Amino acid sequence: MKAIHFLLAAVVAIGATQAGAQRLPVPIVNHENVVVQRASGQPATAADVRKAIFAAADATGRKWVLSEPTPGQLIATYHVRTHTVVTEVRYSGSQFSVRYSDSVNMKYAPGGPSGTGVIHPFYNQWVQDFVHAVRLELNKT
């Protein structure tokens, strides 16, 4: 009888572990009006910020692909395995913003507590890493 209970407990534990591995969607975090700061203290130009964004796209270790539909706006796309995220990056010499635009296979749903929608938590981590990389690139100048 104890063997059956042990076996049943093991099956439940395995099932719980697999369910825990399925990450629940979280509210999307947009990065609005991030202040541009350079290590030199000198003001940046929009061209400086654009250059830092392109350098950060490579520096994160992820393959962010950037396109530029209009000056001051970039579309940053990251594709990994079966997942794709698309963000809109708007920038000037004094600030930049990174906002959710679209995704594939990332558990996106509109609404949520923040009103911006919910998504797989990796989205927020990937974008946070990207924003951090932009800030690091700006601090190099």
Written account of the structure:
The chain is of the alpha+beta class and 141 residues long. Helix content is 38%, strand content 30%. The chain has a single domain, classed as 2-Layer Sandwich (TATA-Binding Protein), CATH 3.30.310. The protein has 3 helices and 7 strands; from the N terminus they run H-E-E-H-E-E-E-E-E-H. The strands form 2 sheets. A 5-stranded antiparallel β-sheet has the order 2-6-5-4-3, with helices on one face. Strands 1-7 form a two-stranded antiparallel sheet. Helix 2 (46-59) packs across helix 3. The termini are far apart. The model is unreliable at 15-20 (pLDDT under 50).
Which strand-content bin applies to the residues? 25-35%
Q: What's the order of the H and E elements? A: HEEHEEEEEH
At CATH level 3, the topology is TATA-Binding Protein
- Calculate Rg over CA atoms: 20 Å
Structural class by SSE content: alpha+beta
Shape from CA axes?
globular
Distance between the termini: 70 Å
Number of domains: 1
- Lateral arrangement of strands in the main beta sheet: 2-6-5-4-3
What top-tier CATH class fits best? Alpha Beta
| Proportion of helical residues | 25-40%
Describe the sheet with the most strands: 5 strands, antiparallel
Q: Which second-level CATH architecture applies?
A: 2-Layer Sandwich
